Amino acid sequence: MAAVNPPWAMLAELTHACPLRCPYCSNPTELTARSRELDTAAWVRIFAEAGALGVRHAHLSGGEPLLRRDLPELVAAASGAGIYTQLVTSGLGLTGRRLAGLTAAGLRSVQLSVQAADAATSDRIAGRRSFDAKREAAAVIRASGLPLGLNVVLHRHNLDAIDAIIALGVDWGAERIELANTQFYGWGLTNRRALLPTRDQLTRARERVEHWRGRTRAELIWVVPDHFEGVAKPCMGGWGAVSLTVAPDGRVLPCPAAYGLPLELPHALEHPLSWIWSESPAFNAYRGTDWMPEPCAGCPRKEIDFGGCRCQAHALTGDAARTDPACSLAPDHRLITALATEPAAEEFVYRAHADRIG
Ligand code: SF4
Ligand code: FES
Prior knowledge:
Elements: E1 9-13, H1 40-53, E2 57-61, H2 71-80, E3 84-89, H3 96-105, E4 109-114, H4 119-126, H5 131-144, E5 148-154, H6 162-171, E6 176-181, H7 186-190, H8 192-195, H9 199-212, E7 219-223, E8 243-246, E9 252-253, H10 273-278, H11 281-284, H12 310-317, H13 333-340
Parallel strand pairs: 1-2, 1-8, 2-3, 3-4, 4-5, 5-6, 6-7
Antiparallel strand pairs: 8-9
């Protein structure tokens, strides 16, 4: 087996529990119950192994990671292993005192999710009142001196307000605003017809983002949409290339959406992370380019997009090894163009009580 470069980044899904019920949630439809979550000692060991393996950046995510009372210990463990830690949060439950404890433990930055620029739309998308808490959380983060990033998932119901969303981010003091068009995985797939934007919405929003670039000190990141561009997107820099995900129960995934793939996912309590990264069948299944069928195998872009998303290929064609139908060269591309013309649904389907799972 060829030598494998070490991972650089890690997504630590500390819990799937969450006070919000966003219809675009990319976590799986079957969430991990709280009773099955890893305990503190297991996460401490995983962060130590990750640091030794080469991981330098961790997103502490969920669900809502603030629901873990042991979060300061987990931050300290990651930080002690030489890993830069970023908290990815809805902001609910983030007090100045809580953040001071996390900062003292070594937390380096915070990414706050925002659903829309006005309270009514934001609360409708989030499935509960939360906008005011987010504004307060942003103020707490700014007061702490930690860098603040905003993460906004874009879709049919907020793309037309892109100017107001960017203005809100600037007003709240964000240094970075990630404008991420919805990716249709996990629960988000359930709501695809309610979330899928029109091509016109996307075109206008992209123009507005370009307009703002250079006119604000905030860095603007536009994550291109699925389904419309005719191009496949590289997942996490390539399968098993730079990043790994650890699920709340200790399963380790090459990609955060790989729960639904027909793979035997290795478990961090059963194998060393180094073996999982370098040798496990799951991490080698679509690593590199040798596994690729045509047209990817002979394509000049194969080391740029790595044949696109395995999850999307599997969801749409039943075969995770086929070329991602998002690519206009894919034999199955018609499956994507058909989706983009599906009639819209008006109502969101919300998860039931993700804050109270198991
Ligand atoms: Fe990417 Fe494969 Fe499409 Fe080429 S054929 S652009 S490698 S998905
Ligand atoms: Fe990573 Fe699909 S989202 S391969």
